[in-house]
Amino acid sequence: MTQNDVNNGVCxxxxxxxxxxxxxxxxxxxxxxxxxxxxxxxxxxADNVAVQGIDYPADIPGFLAGGDVxxxxxxxxxxxxxMAACPTTKLVMSGYSQGGQLVHNAASxxxxxQTAFVSSAVIFGDPxxxxxxxxxxxxxxxxxxxxxxxxxxxxxxxxxxxxTYSMNAGEAAKFVASAAA
Length: 181
Prior knowledge:
6 helices; five-stranded parallel beta sheet; 35% helix; Rossmann fold
């Protein structure tokens, strides 16, 4: 799945920047991104949500390096782009697996004003579980890690619990909607 609303100049009441997991296709992936943005659309109204996937290689070397450097920079740049183009939107930074590393890395690159602009950050299957998301307030941050997910424990084994985050789409969408209220 691919989503390019920000690249296409779309402004909506909410904007989601999403980084897919390692080896996933498109710029949104399939396992977590699409169910999450669909759930947010159901909560907020589909016409109220702009979605931009992060175009980055999503390869294993990037994961092993702590998250693709170029993708991390791109996500941070997109925060600035959205802030300038759509100053009233509620911005959500989100990612799955290596995409979660990008959220952490990008958040640490933001200015104070950009950090304050972030409405919420949601990470599924977070390899950097337990670490802050830049200076984004803990109350605006939700990290979802399943019991038995080795990636969330700092490992590199993709086990079944790492592949089932679609089941948390509704919970994550409720958090995002609440943070935006």
